[in-house]
Design goal:
Among the domains are: 160 residues, no CATH class; 157 residues, no CATH class. The chain is globular and about 70 Å long. The strands form four sheets. Strands 2, 6, 7, 8, 9 and 10 form a six-stranded antiparallel sheet that branches. It has a two-stranded antiparallel ribbon with strand order 1-3. It has a two-stranded antiparallel ribbon with strand order 4-5. The protein is of the alpha+beta class. Helix content is 41%, strand content 13%. The structure holds adenosine monophosphate (AMP) and magnesium ion (MG). Magnesium ion binds next to loops.
């Protein structure tokens, strides 16, 4: 069910503000299927009313009417500090189709816009669109993107840019920040409504638990622990892991200055506005845990409905301690798969850590390395492994390969079979910053072909696509440092 907290304190009916002369920039036929629209891949909807809807210029298509467009209020912690009330400052929920909420991002001011203009620019909308769809194809939980619609309407950021609207889809856009909002107002009945909504629609497994709210909290932690492990496994940095950007159903959401790492640097910071590196790659798990602690505080009044105060606290504290355990278990399993191990051995984690340290020291391309690693054969002479040339300290990486091959031999796995499994765990194609940038540069000239091509390539990230070999390569040196900031 679409966001159902009705009432002035939770949301406001907000019609989108139109943009002049809208045009399609990008469209995902795969996302369209979720709402029952059958549109051929690489095609645009023939029904022109969808362009008007996705631009925010109309509230009905031929097939659907959206009678209650609304924006919702939430609060949150930004960069570790309580920021108070935030809310959908530029997002408008149109309604729900087949269990998917449709939300326009960048469709104009709302009651929660604060100092903002309610708009999004073409550049950031294309990035969100491509990354949402790429994450989905990688098998990582995410909000989806149906389309980007552009307009020549000017929007001021560091420089003048043009407006775009990204239509997002998700079973729910509820965030940790929604809970924090009503907790900060000590509004326990609203908190209970939110929790009940989640249990009913997204966490039915909690319904029959002896303490449904505690179980709900645990399940939210579990989903987000697994999610962040999946990010680490593909070298994804979110960039702004504020509690208002963390999904209550465990989706990657609010794509801003995110980045997939090219060269592996454990402390990589993708958002150049994040000077202290709070959201650096290696901190993501601990930051997600921190966000779950924010959620725990917000859940306290809910647990106090059925437990005394100190009991409620200790139940939540214990539940919170399960986060690092769930994360570690998911991480270990994903990285074992990445290096092709089918069994568990005590030394595996040390083996993986030694590899990551060596990759960090030599700034090895994360995606390229893991993809190529599947080529290793058990009877291979280490001197013939091409990947060793990517490392500065050859003797140390040779030792690693020797230990790795011995470990493979201990499993006696079939090289061909293992290669297949490893290729299904290590994507060949990711949304590298320089690729997104090239697509954006063309789109600014009204050439959307590169956005379309990237969408197509990234929809099959684990497949070999020989015609697109260059898209799998690390960026050329002059394009290594495409910088992205919070401005969007
Ligand atoms: P973000 O950092 O994008 O997650 O946004 C933080 C808060 O600022 C959210 O409440 C957004 O809705 C709001 N916001 C971001 N950009 C704008 C904008 N251009 N206009 C209005 N609100 C915005
Ligand atoms: Mg946000």
């Amino acid at each position: 069910m679409a966001f159902t907290l009705s009432g002035d304190d939770a949301c406001q009916i907000t019609p989108p503000s139109p943009i002049p002369n809208p045009y399609w920039v990008a469209f995902s036929s795969s996302a369209a299927k979720l709402i029952g629209l059958e549109i051929g891949s690489n095609e645009l909807p023939a029904d022109a009313t969808w362009l008007e809807v996705c631009a925010g210029n109309a509230l009905s298509s031929t097939s659907h009417q959206f009678t209650q467009p609304l924006s919702t209020v939430y609060s949150g912690h930004q960069f570790g500090v309580w920021a108070g009330q935030l809310g959908d400052g530029r997002a408008i929920l149109l309604g729900e189709i087949q269990g998917q909420e449709l939300q326009l991002k960048g469709a104009g001011k709302t009651r929660y816009s604060r100092m903002g203009d309610g708009r999004a620019v073409l550049r950031s909308s294309i990035r969100e669109f491509l990354c949402s769809e790429a994450m989905y194809s990688l098998g990582i939980p995410t909000t989806r993107a149906l389309s980007v619609v552009g307009s020549e309407m000017p929007v001021r950021r560091e420089i003048m840019e043009t407006a775009a609207v990204c239509t997002r889809l998700a079973p729910s856009f509820l965030r940790i920040g929604h809970f924090e909002h009503f907790a900060s107002l000590q509004n326990t009945s609203r908190l209970a409504e939110l929790a009940n909504l989640l249990i009913q629609d997204h966490y039915s497994e909690c319904q029959n638990a002896s303490n449904p709210y505690l179980e709900l909290f645990k399940q939210i932690c579990q989903r987000n622990a697994k999610l962040v492990a999946q990010w680490q496994a593909v070298g994804f940095c979110h960039g702004v892991l504020n509690s208002d950007n963390i999904s209550a159903i465990g989706l990657t959401m609010d794509y801003g200055p995110f980045g997939f790492m090219d060269q592996f640097q454990i402390d990589h910071i993708c958002n150049h506005s994040d000077q202290g590196g709070r959201y650096a790659y290696h901190r993501q798990p601990q930051i997600m845990h921190w966000n779950m602690a924010c959620l725990a505080s917000a859940f306290l009044p809910l647990l106090e409905l059925s437990n005394d105060a100190s009991e409620a606290q200790s139940l939540l504290r214990e539940a919170l301690e399960e986060f690092p355990v769930a994360y570690a278990s998911a991480w270990q399993s994903l990285f074992r798969q990445k290096i092709g191990l089918m069994t568990e051995d005590d030394g595996d984690i040390r083996l993986i850590e030694r590899l990551l340290q060596a990759m960090h020291d030599s700034k090895v391309d994360f995606t390229y390395f893991f993809r190529q690693l599947s080529q290793t054969r058990q009877n291979q002479d280490i001197q013939t492994i091409c990947l060793r040339d990517h490392f500065i300290d050859r003797s140390s990486i040779d030792q690693w390969f020797s230990d790795y091959i011995n470990r493979l031999k201990s499993e006696n796995s079939d090289d061909g079979e293992r290669r297949k499994l490893m290729n299904a765990a290590n994507p060949k194609y990711i949304l590298r910053n320089h690729l997104a940038q090239a697509a954006i540069d063309k789109a600014k000239q009204h050439d959307f072909s590169e956005v379309k091509r990237l969408l197509e390539i990234l929809s099959r990230p684990y497949d070999e696509q020989p015609e697109y070999e260059t898209y799998a390569m690390p960026p050329p040196p002059d394009l290594e440092k495409v910088e992205v900031s919070c401005s969007s």
